[in-house]
């Protein structure tokens, strides 16, 4: 396809990478994060940025629309009803045009400078490795959130045997087709390594940077994470137990 050219920047209709960012009420974080994504990737890979606004109540959508004037890589998708992070990620992936997807949380705690590191890991990995998950080795959250995450990861790892130290990290790199083939449910983004492994693919955890939230407030607390997580964990364990895979050939 013919690339489109805006303000001296060539943007392909079929980029190599789509960066998907779900957001809800992050008006002060969108401009800094978009700028960091552009700085990390422009000139290194043919990319697009797909923001998914989960019907924010603040000026998030308006600020994203204003950024499009000077960021030709930026596309904006808007939910017509508030639907949560997993749905936003999935709709962003469905709207994406690249064969590989990088995801970032919209709060700015993930560092876009880590995306080239994930791409380098992909390039030297085996072809059947379809997910490269960020691993926050030096988390900048509160002590209570780190404690809760530590125990949740331990329980999840014991039940699902996914060999992943940190499934809650928002920065990930995965193949678009492999992701869209996974079973969809709310909060599925927390179980991507186990779901990818259930589908027969390998996954790798990659140490990444983690930062303090610069603006806005978290949309989760330890209690609602725990209550939802118990039900989801049992559901994913059931999916794994009921999984059946086989190679096929044309007869």
TrEMBL record:
InterPro entries: Glyco_trans_2-like, Glycosyltransferase_2, Nucleotide-diphossugar_trans
An MF annotation (GO) of this entry: undecaprenyl-phosphate 4-deoxy-4-formamido-L-arabinose transferase activity
Superkingdom, taxonomy of origin: Bacteria
Gene Ontology terms describing biological process: lipopolysaccharide biosynthetic process
Domain Glycosyltransferase 2-like residues, every copy: 18-179
Keywords annotated in UniProt: Cell membrane, Glycosyltransferase, Lipopolysaccharide biosynthesis, Membrane, Transferase, Transmembrane, Transmembrane helix
GO cellular component terms, A-Z: plasma membrane
Coiled-coil segments: none
PANTHER family: UNDECAPRENYL-PHOSPHATE 4-DEOXY-4-FORMAMIDO-L-ARABINOSE TRANSFERASE (PTHR48090:SF3), UNDECAPRENYL-PHOSPHATE 4-DEOXY-4-FORMAMIDO-L-ARABINOSE TRANSFERASE-RELATED (PTHR48090)
Protein name per UniProt: Glycosyltransferase family 2 protein
Source species of the chain: Pseudoxanthomonas helianthi
